[in-house]
């Protein structure tokens, strides 16, 4: 057996050496050697695996949707602040959608602001457009299609099992929203047997992909388990992605002595920084002139 420490990896190994496939921290000459050392290595391995998992889980991901392809400002995390275009697969902010539609009102055409394609006029045409996007492995289109099956929309029969199948495909292509929906299915027992462990697993994958709502749920679960430090980390990360509910929880944590004044001040600054990134006069106009249809951020209470 190698003399390598359980927390260090040597760079000098033989051609037959094998690495612990869980923690990647120790190396063995062969499988038999690994098996003999298992009982001694188990605790260190489990601790290191947990550390590696937390390192990955608590790394702030990039914004979920990136930037609007027209105005190049960060897209809001709130769904009403952006629109997916099934014709070209672009996700466009509410401000650009409203501004474009306002300019072409006289033409009576609700064209796509990006590719100028007219909207699909029937449920059948909508599904055909989604099928084209799905053939291109468009993760957002696949996620949306799962939602259609879940809700029974656009002529599709409501089918939770089919929705899960579609979401799993979207998740494999990187859709954090799909992971979140799968987590919800296991959390609520929709189409599958209720399983909180699996729900947490999928919420974690969604959170690592940048979903602030999944991050909020993880924070709530950690708070219920009295893991205050982890709960605060989740809430703070969600605040940075525009989740006002997480900011409200941090405020309550501060009032109850579970967070410091500096913690709350940091959360306020983080939320304001997010608002600064997504705010524009055009988006404000869209939100105010459509009775909230194009609301793109939530007021923090």
Side by side, the strands of the main sheet go 1-2
Describe the global form. globular
What is the H/E order?
EEHEEHHHHHHHHHHH
Content of β-strand: under 5%
Oligomer: single chain
Q: Could you tell me the radius of gyration in angstroms?
A: 23 Å
**In CATH's first tier, which class of the domain at 121-213 applies?**
Mainly Alpha
Q: CA-to-CA gap between the ends?
A: 59 Å
Count, helices? 12
The CATH superfamily of the domain at 121-213 is identified as Tetratricopeptide repeat domain
Q: Care to count the β-strands?
A: 4
Unreliable runs? 1-16
Can you walk through the features of this model?
- There is one protein chain.
- With 301 residues, this protein is mostly helical.
- Among the domains are: 1-38, no CATH class; 63-119, 2-Layer Sandwich (Herpes Virus-1); 121-213, Tetratricopeptide repeat domain (Serine Threonine Protein Phosphatase 5, Tetratricopeptide repeat), CATH 1.25.40.10.
- The chain is 55% helix and 3% strand.
- It contains 12 helices and 4 strands; from the N terminus they run ββαββααααααααααα.
- It has helices spanning 31-57, 94-103, 123-135, 139-151, 160-172, 176-188, 196-208, 212-224, 228-240, 244-255, 261-278, 281-288, and strands at 18-19, 27-28, 82-84, 91-93.
- A hairpin with a 7-residue loop joins strand 1 (18-19) and strand 2.
- Helix 3 runs antiparallel to helix 4 (139-151), helix 4 packs antiparallel against helix 5 (160-172) and helix 9 (228-240) packs antiparallel against helix 10.
- The longest helix is centred in the N-terminal third of the chain and has 27 residues, at 31-57.
- It is globular and about 75 Å long.
């Amino acid at each position: 057996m190698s003399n390598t420490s359980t927390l260090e990896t040597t760079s000098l190994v033989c051609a037959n050496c094998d690495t612990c496939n869980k923690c990647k921290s120790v190396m063995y000459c062969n499988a038999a050697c690994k098996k003999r050392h298992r009982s001694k290595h188990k605790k260190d391995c489990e601790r290191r695996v947990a550390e590696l998992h937390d390192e990955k889980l608590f790394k702030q991901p990039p914004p979920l949707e990136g930037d609007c392809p027209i105005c190049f400002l960060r897209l809001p995390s709130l769904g009403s602040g952006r629109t997916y275009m099934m014709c070209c697969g672009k996700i466009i902010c509410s401000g650009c959608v409203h501004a474009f539609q306002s300019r072409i009102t006289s033409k009576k055409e609700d064209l796509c602001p990006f590719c100028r394609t007219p909207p699909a006029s029937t449920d059948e045409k909508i599904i055909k457009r989604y099928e084209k996007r799905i053939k291109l492995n468009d993760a957002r289109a696949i996620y949306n299609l799962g939602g259609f099956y879940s809700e029974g929309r656009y002529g599709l029969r409501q089918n939770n099992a089919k929705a899960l199948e579609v979401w799993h495909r979207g998740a494999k292509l990187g859709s954090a929203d799909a992971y979140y929906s799968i987590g919800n299915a296991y959390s609520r027992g929709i189409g599958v047997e209720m399983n909180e462990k699996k729900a947490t697993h999928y919420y974690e994958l969604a959170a690592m992909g940048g979903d602030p709502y999944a991050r909020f749920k993880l924070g709530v679960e950690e708070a219920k388990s009295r893991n205050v430090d982890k709960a605060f980390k989740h809430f703070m990360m969600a605040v940075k992605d525009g989740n006002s509910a997480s900011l409200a929880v941090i405020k309550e944590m501060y009032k109850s002595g579970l967070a410091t004044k500096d913690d709350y001040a940091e959360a306020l600054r983080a939320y304001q920084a997010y608002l600064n990134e997504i705010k524009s006069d055009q988006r404000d106009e869209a939100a105010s002139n459509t009775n909230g249809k194009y609301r793109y951020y939530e007021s923090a209470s």
